[in-house]
Amino acid sequence: MNLNLQNWLQCELESLKHNNLYKTPKILESPADGSVTMNGKKVINLSSNNYLGLANHPEVREAAIESIEKWGVGAGAVRWIGGTMDIHDSLEQEIASWKSVEDVLVFTSGFTSNSGCIPAVLTKNDVVISDELNHASIIDGVRLSSAKYKKSDGYVYRHADMDHLEEILKKCEHFEKRMIITDGVFSMDGDIAPLPQIVELAEKYDAFVMVDDAHASGVLGKHGSGTTSHFNLYGRVDIQLGTLSKALGVVGGYIAGSENLKKWLINRGRPYLFSTAHPPMVAGALIKCLEIMQRDNSLINRLWDNAKYWKDSLQSAGFDTMGSETPITPVYVGDEGKAAEMEKMLWDEGVFALSIIYPTVALGKARIRTMPNATHTIDELDRALVAFKKVRDKLGKF
């Protein structure tokens, strides 16, 4: 064991702890529902992405078991080598129909969808124009490409600022390809990208658009099909990314777009080329999730009803929810130390709600990020509100 490395790690870890930036994950000992058992304690769970409760839906569990019995527990290979099963193809066809696109390619995660797609479609002759609050997986995917992208070079626009986006586009006409990339729903603030204006500017300046719908899939649009549906922009968004691990409750990510895009990513998307395929039970469970979402909107309606109730309750109690437009509901705190302490105190009161601090958000912009979902009862949300008010009274104004 190299002592220089271990000493460096120890010093850096101590620095994180000193600055209230150190995190230790709690252990979930029950299914991801509105109330869960974590570290041996029953708590109200306000930190799950399981928007619709599909992660523990009885029909989804049954579909996963049936898939194991038919195909086994593993695909046995990378997809292009021999790991693509007919159930993987069926899943992609189902997603393409749901998204109203020509074709879809599934990756092992949303993160690898970004790191697989972005470098594959961009060259050194291209530029990426990115919203400053885009998700880390977008940023890392862009960094893996050879395109120009740096904020210091003027290619990152102020959050949702369309005038600034147009200023940048005017300076980028000499590039071979211009890609505008944005989250559909911003994961830390809960606001929705101004996608219609982005698309209009892209068409005006001959750019193409990629939208990361990780937090819009299953939440916005017809049967939860995302921001393109939400804004009726069918056929005008070139690349759509979504996750299969949030509202759809299982695991994975996908790139939706043209048939040619899928063919290109099969040949040049490195995570696809070098990662073993999903276990067939993942595909089987996801197909059932899509079926449940599309046969009626009851789970999506319940999600939005709970989200509205929670936001209204917080705002009536004087909390700042930072203008969130979606179930992602941040409670603004500001100070990192106070946010970290609030997380601990909420836990003591029986509520699991994470503090979000630097580097996930900017210094001085710490918040408690809450995620009401379709599995919560009104009683659970009411008890969570009591805990928030009690903790605020102890901490003082923020």
Under CATH, the topology of the largest domain is which?
Aspartate Aminotransferase, domain 2
Give the uncertain stretches in residue-range form.
Answer: none
- Report strand order across the widest sheet: 3-9-8-7-6-4-5
Fourth CATH level, the homologous superfamily of the largest domain: Type I PLP-dependent aspartate aminotransferase-like (Major domain)
Structure notes:
The chain has 398 residues and is of the alpha/beta class. The protein has two domains: 22-51 and 297-395, Aspartate Aminotransferase, domain 1, CATH 3.90.1150; 58-295, 3-Layer(aba) Sandwich (Aspartate Aminotransferase, domain 2). Helices cover 44% and strands 15% of the residues. It has helices at 3-18, 58-71, 79-83, 86-99, 110-121, 136-144, 162-170, 195-204, 227-230, 259-268, 270-274, 280-295, 298-316, 336-348, 378-395; strands at residues 35-38, 41-45, 103-107, 127-131, 156-157, 178-183, 208-212, 239-243, 253-257, 329-334, 351-352, 354-356, 366-370. The strands form three sheets. It has a seven-stranded mixed beta sheet with strand order 3-9-8-7-6-4-5, sandwiched between helices. Helix 8 links the parallel strand 6 and strand 7. Helix 5 runs parallel beside helix 6 (136-144) and helix 7 (162-170) runs parallel beside helix 8.
